[in-house]
Amino acid sequence: MRHLFLSALFLLLQAVWLQGQAVSTEFGKNRIQYHDDFDQWNMYETENFVTYWYGKGREIAHTVVQLAELDNSGIQNILEHKMNDKIELIVYLDLTDMKQSNLGTEEQFLGKGGITKVVENKVFVYFNGNHNDLRKSLRQGIAAVYINSMLHGDNLQEIVQNAILLSLPDWFQEGLISYVGEEWSPELDSRLKDYFTNPKKKKKDFNRLTKDDARLAGHAMWHFLAKTYGEASISNILYLTRIQRSLENGLLYVLGIDSKELAIQWQAYYEKKFFSQEIQGGDFSNDLSITSQKRPVDIGRMRLSPDGSQLAYSLIDHGRVRVYLYDMKTGDKKVLYRYGIRNYEVESDLMYPAIAWRPDGAELTFLFERKDVIYLKRFDFENDAV
Fold first, then answer.
1. From residue 86, how far is each of 42, 48, 74, 169 by CA, in Å?
2. Nearest Cα to 220, choosing from 195, 198, 246?
3. How far, in Å, CA of 347 to CA of 356, rounded?
4. φ and ψ at 206, to 5 degrees?
């Protein structure tokens, strides 16, 4: 009898151990880690947030806590929505550390224009050295949690029901998250102006832009709605879209127009804005476009040589990086250096390579990162053949 009891106890303990292992390890999703900083995590808890940080991230966590509480009420006012549960913020020292972490690997990193990664009520943010970018990422993440709660509900039953009955275009949620993160910026203005004034594209409208860049189109749409119909129209459209389970019905109830008429008004608004502006300065004579690329790539940092004769820049193809040297007179370009591998599931790190010229233009230097180690590369144009 005792032997049977011990055998049953052993099997029970083995089952508990196996269950614990399954919870802590996600099959096929383990990531290589280059340091042991993740062994020790710490937590700050405030009125609306629970913030987790590790290793040397104390000072960044302090900043994140303050920025999150500072902007939370403003985001609530835009969306007119509150949550009962606290939002969890997971803070990383940089993008490389974020890629090393196993937290949240059940969801892929969003690679659509840098929208902050969000899993349920957890917001994953990293610091790239720019506090303005950190604040924008935080606002986007907090907004994404609120918008998900508004449109899809907080419990499993609401999420399943709304996922079946509520189908929204990509521009709707992506654009709104981007808008709440940053109302408008010179960069967005320039990108949208390029779209409308590009002579190569004869037909330009909202639907075509959504196919090329849903986030930019959506951001411009919410910006247009706030400027034309007032910021209160944003929360009203969100609320009625969920209640009516239809974007068309939400627009009709709030604005009195359908999506087709809204797209026409959107186009007229921005055409009037951009075509009424005088284009100052001459056109750039050389073609720096990357139209030969079969897939979309990110343009990294660009640095013009002191005498203006050469341009150094990088192209980042989902983690695969090429550093180019472009001759401003002849239009010739050559690849100086390649590194990295493509990974379509994670966000590209646009911080690197960091490029700099020597004041006399005889040397080009750039920093890049590999396996969480920073490397320095120099090109001496006087003594070395390039």
1. 17, 5, 16, 28
2. 195
3. 24
4. -65, -45
Residue 270 clears pLDDT 80, i.e. is over it: yes
Which residues are registered as beta bridge partners of 316?
Answer: 298, 321
**Phi/psi of residue 288, nearest 5 degrees:** -100, 15
Please state, in angstroms and as integers, the Cα–Cα distance from residue 332 to each residue in 167, 314, 328, 353, 381, following that order. Answer: 48, 15, 8, 21, 16
Residue found by looking up tokens 């090393």 in the block: 100
The distance from CA 87 to its chain's CA centroid, rounded to whole angstroms, is 19
Rounded Cα–Cα distance for residues 293 and 309 (Å): 25
pLDDT grade for 208, boundaries at 50, 70 and 90:
very high
CA-CA distance, 178 to 113, in Å (whole number)? 9
Task: Give the pLDDT score at 124.
Answer: 92
**Mean pLDDT, the chain, as a whole number?**
80
Instruction: Give the DSSP H or E segment for 335.
Output: strand 333-339
